[in-house]
Write a structure and sequence with these properties.
- The protein contains four helices and four strands; from the N terminus they run αααββββα.
- By secondary structure, the chain is α+β, with helices and mostly antiparallel strands.
- The longest helix is centred in the first third of the chain and has 17 residues, at 3-19.
- The chain has a four-stranded antiparallel beta sheet with strand order 1-2-3-4.
- Strand 3 and strand 4 (137-144) form a beta hairpin.
- The protein is 26% helix and 24% strand.
Length: 168
């Protein structure tokens, strides 16, 4: 390579930086889009991760068999009984976890509870996690608070006479 070729290459590169970042053959005035950095999801504790998975199953968003490898003992049977009734589903709203807390009664065991909000309803869910010999967490028990009874009209309001009716 001769000295003149090297200087031409250098001059092209210098001209490109002076004119902007657009290559000299490009005639399109548009610029590349700005790259927006993605927010990293915060690292979740095992009981928080399981609360999300259990919520998805008990609200009908995921099938029960998605928890097959993540449960032990009676927990899968409890999920099979609970899931068809979708106890955490609410009309026209997606349930979300408001709070999730865990208690470690001994190493390798977490007893946790979560409050679930869907619209104006708030429900409770409790579960137990146990760590196996392979260090994976598995759900050992699940309980969901029963649905509150629907409010009914007072019995006296139904039997009250019409205001314009005469009493005999």
């Amino acid at each position: 390579m001769s000295g003149t070729e090297t200087s031409r290459t250098y001059d092209r590169a210098a001209a490109r930086t002076v004119a902007g970042t657009r290559p000299p053959t490009r005639r399109d005035p548009r610029r590349p889009g700005r790259v927006v950095p993605q927010r990293r999801r915060p690292w979740l504790q095992p009981h928080e991760r399981f609360a999300e998975q259990l919520l998805a199953v008990l609200s009908g968003l995921r099938p029960v068999h998605s928890m097959l490898g993540r449960t032990i003992g009676e927990a899968y049977d409890q999920l099979v009984r609970l899931a068809p009734t979708t106890p955490l589903r609410a009309r026209n709203t997606t349930p979300v976890i408001r709070t999730c807390r865990g208690f470690h009664p001994r190493p390798g065991v977490v007893e946790a509870w979560a409050s679930i909000a869907a619209g104006d309803q708030v429900r409770a869910m409790a579960f137990r996690l146990e760590q196996g010999p392979d260090l994976r967490w598995r759900c050992a028990a699940v309980e969901v608070a029963p649905r509150p009874p629907k409010p009914t009209r007072p019995h006296s309001a139904r039997s009250a006479p019409h205001p314009g009716a005469s009493a005999d």
